[in-house]
Each structure stands twice: as C-alpha cells, then as structure tokens.
Automatic annotation (TrEMBL):
Protein name, UniProt field: Vancomycin resistance protein VanW
InterPro entries attached to this UniProt entry: Glycopeptide_resist_protein, Vancomycin_resist_VanW
Lineage: Bacteria, Pseudomonadati, Bacteroidota, Sphingobacteriia, Sphingobacteriales
Superkingdom to which the source organism belongs: Bacteria
PANTHER family: EXPORTED PROTEIN (PTHR35788:SF1), EXPORTED PROTEIN-RELATED (PTHR35788)
Organism (species): Sphingobacterium zeae
Length: 282
C-alpha cells in the first residue's frame, strides 16, 4: 500500500500551475498530432456508406440527460446538440481491413463556429463548462462496441477521477474512452479481413449506436467487471475494478474460447460513496 500511496501523491505539472503554459503545451501537442496524421503510415478510415452492412456485431444505447450532482442542466441540454454535430461526422463510417479509426480526425476541433455549445467537460479534477463538452459520450459508446469485436484498440484514455455517483450506470466503471482534441484521441485498427461500420442515431431519450460487419462471425464477446470496490485512503475516496472479456462461440453451447483481463482501474472519487472500505496507507 506504500507504493499506492506514492502513486497517489503525483507531482503537479508546471503547465497545470500556469494556464499560459498549459495552453502552449496543448498547442504543441496538437501540432505534433496533425504532423503525425500526415506522416505516419496509418491508413485512416474516411469512407462512409449510407447503406448498412448486413450483420450486426453489437448495439448499445446511453441516456442523453443524466442527473450529475448539482451541475447546470443547461450544460446537459447543450451536450445533446454537441453530440448530434459530432455524431454526424462519424455515423456510417466504414473501417476496412488495415484501416484505423480516429475519433479526433473524423470529428475535428469542436468550435462555436461549427455550432458547438458549452457543455460539461472534466479537467484537472473538476467538472466545468467547455465548448463541445460532452462528446465523450460518443467515444464511450463506440469503445464499448469495439470491445465486443476483434478490432484492436490502439489509443485510449480514461478520466483520472470519478466525479459523480452512479445514476443508472449500465456499463462497468472505467470502460469508457475520453477524448480531447486532438492529442487525446480514441483510435482502433482493423487487423481482420472483414469490413466494419459504425452507425449512430438518436431517440427522444438516448444516443444509440451499433457496430456492423460485412460477414457474420461465428464467435462473440462478453465484457464484464470484477473486483469492484470503493476505498477510503488518507481521508480520500478511490474506486477500483477490473474489466474482463470472454470470447465464445455463438453455437456449440457457447463454448468459451478465451478469457482475458482488459484493464485494471484505480481512480480518485470526488464524492462520498454509500459504502466503502477504509484502508490505512501506513
């Protein structure tokens, strides 16, 4: 636990103390990313097909308006506008063999000129308003779809803290993918012989999405959580869990072919959970 205590006492970066240095660092990283898009050897997905591919791999939906502490509900309403703009840049995209999906490359920089509104975003340990805030809900949904496929995640980030108590949470904690244009991207590569397609749409209450494929697979995936727990360490709250995945045959009684640990999560919690285990850091 001493090692964990050291891990929790992370040094505050100079760019976090001085806003000008922070924005300069962001600008430099964005330049590097744009250069990478031009110079790396990846073939990025860019072709859309209005017609749906014939087979569905996975479908999921997430609620648009959620109760998030005492935060301004207008930011949640604005988020819906942001989601619709971003989704229009992604829906119907094909990910053909050896192509890489890049969320930031497809969506671009969210700006007011493009119609984006102030929405809630998480930064430096707090929730605050930012232009285009809330579009991570799309990357979260897409990542969940991808986890149920043979696609290979090549770049993914998640929030370093948990700001709100669960309100009808369906997916395991830590199973999302945050994005921040453009150096915190969400990318996956299609190393299979199949072509995949992402479709997004909206109902009155939900963002809906599906992953489709041009040939039916004889196997599928089950993603689940283990070892979930809230901890109290040195008067601070933390949350931990493990995300696992099983690959199984659709036929032959659902025979399990493979079980793998996808990730271990450990993050600071900024609220007081109802139940927790107190641990001494000494």
């Amino acid at each position: 636990m001493k090692a964990k205590k050291v891990e929790l006492r992370k040094r505050i970066l100079l760019s976090q103390r001085h806003p000008i240095l922070y924005f300069l660092a962001v600008c430099i990283r964005r330049i590097y990313r744009k250069a990478g898009w031009l110079l790396d050897d990846k073939k990025y997905a860019a072709v859309k097909l209005a017609e749906k591919l014939p087979f569905r791999v996975k479908k999921h939906q997430s609620v648009l308006l959620k109760k998030l502490g005492e935060n301004n509900m207008q930011l949640q309403i604005n988020k819906v506008t942001n989601l619709k703009i971003a989704a229009s840049q992604i829906t119907s995209i094909l990910i053909r063999p050896q192509e890489t999906f890049s969320f930031c490359k497809l969506v671009g920089l969210p700006t007011a000129k493009k119609g984006y509104l102030p929405g809630m975003e998480l930064s430096f340990g707090e929730a605050r308003a930012g232009i285009g805030g809330g579009i991570c809900q799309i990357s979260n949904l897409i990542h969940w779809l991808v986890l149920h496929s043979p696609l290979t995640v090549t770049e993914r980030y998640h929030h370093s803290f948990d700001p709100f108590p669960d309100d009808g949470r369906v997916l395991p904690f830590g199973s999302g993918a945050t994005v921040f244009y453009n150096y915190r991207d969400y990318q996956f590569t299609n190393n299979t012989p199949y072509t995949f397609q992402i479709n997004l749409w909206f109902t009155h209450k939900c963002l809906e999405g599906e992953l489709r494929i041009d040939q039916e697979l004889d196997f599928a995936y089950h993603v689940f959580e283990k070892e979930h727990q809230f901890l109290k360490i040195d008067n601070q709250f933390f949350r931990k869990n493990e995300i696992w995945r099983e690959k199984f045959l659709k036929f032959q009684g659902g025979k399990i072919l493979e079980t793998e640990l996808l990730t271990k999560n450990f993050a600071r919690v900024t609220y007081t959970p109802d139940e927790y285990t107190e641990i001494s850091s000494d």
